[in-house]
Amino acid sequence: MTMYTPLFRWFSALLLAIMLTLSLAPAVVQAQSGAHHLENISFEQRLGEKVPLDLPFVNEHGETVVLGDYFGDLPVVLSLGYYECPMLCSLVRNGMVDGLSDVRLTAGIDYHVVNVSIDPTETTMHAANTKAAIVSRYARPGSEEGWHFLTGTQDSIKQLADAVGFAYFYDETIDQYAHAAGILVLTPEGALARYFYGIEYNASDLRLGLVEASGNKIGTPVDQLLLLCYHFDPSTGKYTGLVMTITRIAGTITVMFILGSIFFLSRSSQQRGAPPGSAASAD
Question: Which of 31, 79, 153, 184 could anchor a disulfide with 239, C-beta 3.0 to 4.6 Å?
Fold first, then answer.
């Protein structure tokens, strides 16, 4: 039996690797079937370009405004997402608030924050409720006038999104939007000055971006690490966005680990060799 032990270990480990890979395969295949739209999601840096300030929106009070109402004297932090988002949008907003809370500059005095919903079906109530939660988290007295939450038509939303390089799509099968996570800083004249990706934003970087933008200075491009707002849909059994990526990585790591174990077991068996006297014992 001793001579067959290395071969048996090889076969067992290989079989386990195949089984684990096959167990992950359906999720990956399902992810690929529902992820073709994700290739169209992007957040391109268009530094120096100006956003259309004449776009009409509705604010959290139900008043009709234009985007230019929030520009002129102060730099602007801009966030695109949607208020009823079940995934990353709230993390983006909370990360933005936490980062800005550590900056000595104050919203409404030194800069404005404009949040725009990419969902044209969202209402003033959605905007007002989100503002109440964000202002409470920011917790600086008198800063309410510095936070703005807008809703608008598909046309206005699309024009703004295109202007800032924010490409997204709506998946009607699960009634959700897939988009990248991040925020922007614009100059008082409406020029794109800085991009911040992800859900956490360094206070020093935010302060520098605001100070430079207040002087109409345009920042330099930053590395893009797109974090997508999308998720596993239990009704269709499909993994998309981040979960799809994590699944692929986990599967790859698992297979690599098992293959490494196979190699280690093989080398160990070869180095040990057959025990002394094993042939005599077998007789």
Answer: 31
